[in-house]
Design a protein that fits this description.
The protein is an alpha+beta fold and 233 residues long. The chain contains 7 helices and 8 strands. 37% of the residues lie in helices and 15% in strands. The longest helix is centred in the last third of the chain and has 25 residues.
Length: 233
Amino acid sequence: MALSDKPTRAALRTSVQLELMDTAARWWSAAEINGWLDEWLNEVNQKYEVIWGSATFTNTGTATVTLATVAPGMLRLDAVYWDDKRLAFTTTDRLELIRRAWRDTITQKPRAIYQPTADTLAFWPAPVAGTGFDVVFEYPRDLTFAADTSTLELPAWAKFSAIQWGGHRAYLRRGPNFDGLRSARYKAIFERQLDQVGKTFRQFMPKRSTALRPATAYEAGILDPVGTRLYLE
């Protein structure tokens, strides 16, 4: 499919209204369907992480940062680069093994990151105050249609599942048109189409880099660049 095959929110909403036989928006308002289309975008992107984003943060010596401040639309954190070098993702337990006194002040550039809480990120060693360095964050991001003229960001082949998601949500809504069985049928078709989106993505799109996870060989190479395992007191 060509890029020109990507519909706008208005076109997708019209497709859902035609499926529901409610082009006059008598039973389901345009605002409702717009909300369901935003839900559909994230149902697809949360499962397959098709669309990614990046954010740059200038660090002048801050030891911890709040992820929501850096990138409010972040679904999960994948990679962090300090001064163009990728940092390892680790845990406090692993830092205890690498260096017992890891909490001490070390005048080095950060080599690893860990999360003290779900919404904060800490650098190790803690950066020295002074000249700022650009820290780049890469992550799968939250998706939304900003306006009716906004074009679909997902690959064009994902657009067909929007109709089934709209039907599922429309008949699930409490009211005179509630129909649990019909909603379940739409949901089952949507899930089959969602599987097809994933198969197409895996077959035709380039393979993504491995997500950062503790104790992988990639991260071990960052923490121990010469290949030795040092357990420092």
